[in-house]
Amino acid sequence: MTQTQNILVTGATGTVGRQVVAELLTRGHRVRALTRNAAKADLPAGVEVVEGDLTDPDTLTPALEGVTGLHLITFGGAYFAPLQTGPRILELARAAGVRRVTVLHGGEGTPLEDAVRADDGVDWTVLMPVEFMANALEWADGIVTRDEVREPFVSRLSAMVHEGDIGAVAAVALTEEGHGGQEYVITGPEVLTVADKVAAVAGARGRAVSLVELTEEQAVEQWRAAGHTDEVIGFLLEAYGSTPEIGRTVTDTVEKVTGRPARTFRQWAQEHAEAFGPHA
Ligand SMILES: NC(=O)c1ccc[n+]([C@@H]2O[C@H](COP(=O)([O-])OP(=O)(O)OC[C@H]3O[C@@H](n4cnc5c(N)ncnc54)[C@H](OP(=O)(O)O)[C@@H]3O)[C@@H](O)[C@H]2O)c1
């Protein structure tokens, strides 16, 4: 057990941020969580919830007071708009005494990540997870209402990662020595097809799920109906249609950094079985 430390988590109400918060709490650290709206944050007891906006860095000054570690996201506002405020955030962080920073990679060349990498005043670690297992929650509605998943590119491969493991790697990098200047590609323990994942969800809910393969055109229609922007749709077509090697190659980051094996999708599906409807 390392000494108790004070850590500020941004994006704390998000898929990854909630896991960073949970891991830090489990490890006995004091957690401050940033949100733009404390009334909606719904964070666990023991977390100090503070309001602030990453697009307006000076609002972070009270949140940064007395903090030694800082977890950052690279976007803020509508549609994951890349933050332009990295240099000022880092200036405030250094002034407050922050020594370690983790940043959740949000695609190539985001200004905030570039600013973090250029900062030699802190030990920074770039967290580069592949596809989140939590993305499968997008299937919940179709599974609950029709016992069906509708997806394009069903034979695509993914080394998808449990978001809890991203949180665990972040918590270690924020509180222990030896992770400065590292870029961690974080994956699950196996490479799965869409069909493998659907089978795992069906097993967890105790009821069959059929997989319907969509054409690209049908997929675009479905994503538009779900409210995705053209930019996100373009990204999904690229990421799913020709998944880069990094997205379908297992790394040993989770085990190396946390000392525990990476969690499987089967495990994730069991933990989330309720979201996919009642057992038969
Ligand atoms: N989905 C994937 O498979 C995948 C894979 C690899 C990497 N990624 C990357 O992961 C990131 C998304 O992470 P996520 O899914 O955990 O996010 P998320 O669930 O969409 O959560 C967004 C978070 O950002 C906070 N936020 C947004 N604008 C803010 C601002 N101006 N000031 C302060 N906080 C702000 C929100 O806080 P409040 O609303 O509480 O203020 C919320 O906590 C993206 O960069 C994406 O590229 C995703």
Automatic annotation (TrEMBL):
<dbReference type="InterPro" id="IPR036291">
    <property type="entry name" value="NAD(P)-bd_dom_sf"/>
</dbReference>
<feature type="domain" description="NAD(P)-binding">
    <location>
        <begin position="11"/>
        <end position="104"/>
    </location>
</feature>
<protein>
    <submittedName>
        <fullName>NAD(P)H-binding protein</fullName>
    </submittedName>
</protein>
<dbReference type="InterPro" id="IPR051604">
    <property type="entry name" value="Ergot_Alk_Oxidoreductase"/>
</dbReference>
<dbReference type="Pfam" id="PF13460">
    <property type="entry name" value="NAD_binding_10"/>
</dbReference>
<dbReference type="InterPro" id="IPR016040">
    <property type="entry name" value="NAD(P)-bd_dom"/>
</dbReference>
